[in-house]
Every structure is written in structure tokens, then in C-alpha cells.
């Protein structure tokens, strides 16, 4: 059997790496903070997979739906914590997990708060548009660090930018081959 040419082998490795990165997830067990519980018995924790390339604010609607019958009325200021440490919403879930869990726990036990946002510690998240803006800026910054400029990101078509963001939002590999 003949060996595959080097270019094909590299392409196969690259495709496999992309699949693993985009498909990676962290199992999460999310508990509602005791101060936010308004029903007895307290609700069970919410179990989900957090895409490693995803962001906590993108999970809020699903998590809120799970805890909705136990939440107090009023305006939500959702934030997450791990062992008392407020988690920065603008850092991807996988990065936070890798940084904070020297001995990875699975599932990763987090607490969600719907009140008492620690504005003195965390910058506010104004919703999905804030997350998208942050992601795009991080992408430009990473491209600049790697290549010395961010032209490859800045020159992406609107359709490719949207496809990339939708892939991050949904936690899945982009359908077309975007190269940044």
C-alpha cells in the first residue's frame, strides 16, 4: 500500500485538529445560587455541555429556562462563579476550564447568579452583541499576534464573518472552509 503524499497527510491532520477543537465541550453542572432560589425544594442542577470555543452568556437562555420557576422577579444580571471566583464572560469556556481546573473535575460544578452582579470585578455583558464584538476583536488580536497583521480577518467577507460567528454561537465547525 502506497503512503499518502505529505500534503494529503497534513490536510487530514489539519481537518482532524479542526474537528476536535470545534467539537470539544466541557460537561457542566450548573447550580442556582442559594440567594436566587425562591421555591422549595430548590431546583436540581442543570447539566449541559459547554462548547470549549463558546461563551457563558450564550448559554444563559437555556439555563434561565431550567431555573425559571425558582427565580425571583425582577431584572436579571446573570453571572457565573467557580469556587467563589466570578467568571469573566468574555473568555471562552474551554480556556476558563483549563486555567481554573488544575485537576479537571467532570462535570465542572459552577454556580449561576441572577442577581448581585459584581460590577466592581466584572465588566458588564450587554448580551450576545457584546459577546460577538469581543470574539471578533479577539480574533483580530490573535491573527495579529500570529502573522504580524490582522488583514486576513479584516478582509473576510460579511458572509464568512457571519458563518464564523454562527459556528461559535452554536459550538460547531463552520460548514465552509474559512481560513483566518
TrEMBL record:
Pfam families: ATG5_HBR, ATG5_UblA. One of its GO terms (cellular component) is phagophore. Residues 128-171 form the Autophagy protein ATG5 alpha-helical bundle region domain. GO terms for molecular function: Atg8-family ligase activity. The keyword Ubl conjugation applies. The keyword Cytoplasm does not apply. Keywords: Autophagy, Isopeptide bond, Ubl conjugation. GO terms for biological process: autophagy of mitochondrion; cellular response to nitrogen starvation; piecemeal microautophagy of the nucleus. Residues 21-114 form the Autophagy protein ATG5 UblA domain. Belongs to the ATG5 family. PANTHER family: AUTOPHAGY PROTEIN 5 (PTHR13040:SF2). This is Autophagy protein 5.
Amino acid at each position: 500500500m502506497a503512503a499518502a503524499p505529505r500534503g494529503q497527510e497534513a490536510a487530514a491532520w489539519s481537518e482532524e485538529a479542526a474537528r476536535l477543537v470545534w467539537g470539544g465541550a466541557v460537561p457542566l453542572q450548573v447550580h442556582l445560587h442559594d440567594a436566587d432560589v425562591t421555591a422549595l425544594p430548590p431546583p436540581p442542577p442543570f447539566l449541559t455541555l459547554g462548547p470549549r470555543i463558546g461563551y457563558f452568556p450564550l448559554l444563559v437562555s437555556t439555563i434561565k429556562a431550567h431555573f425559571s420557576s425558582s427565580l425571583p422577579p425582577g431584572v436579571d444580571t446573570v453571572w457565573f462563579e467557580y469556587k467563589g471566583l466570578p467568571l469573566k464572560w468574555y473568555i471562552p469556556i474551554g480556556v476558563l476550564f483549563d486555567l481554573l481546573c488544575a485537576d479537571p473535575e467532570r462535570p465542572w460544578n459552577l454556580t449561576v447568579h441572577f442577581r448581585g452582579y459584581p460590577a466592581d470585578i466584572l465588566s458588564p455583558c450587554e448580551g450576545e452583541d457584546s459577546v460577538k464584538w469581543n470574539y471578533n476583536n479577539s480574533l483580530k488580536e490573535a491573527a495579529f499576534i500570529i502573522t504580524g497583521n490582522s488583514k486576513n480577518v479584516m478582509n473576510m467577507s460579511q458572509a464568512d464573518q457571519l458563518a464564523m460567528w454562527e459556528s461559535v454561537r452554536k459550538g460547531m465547525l463552520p460548514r465552509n472552509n474559512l481560513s483566518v
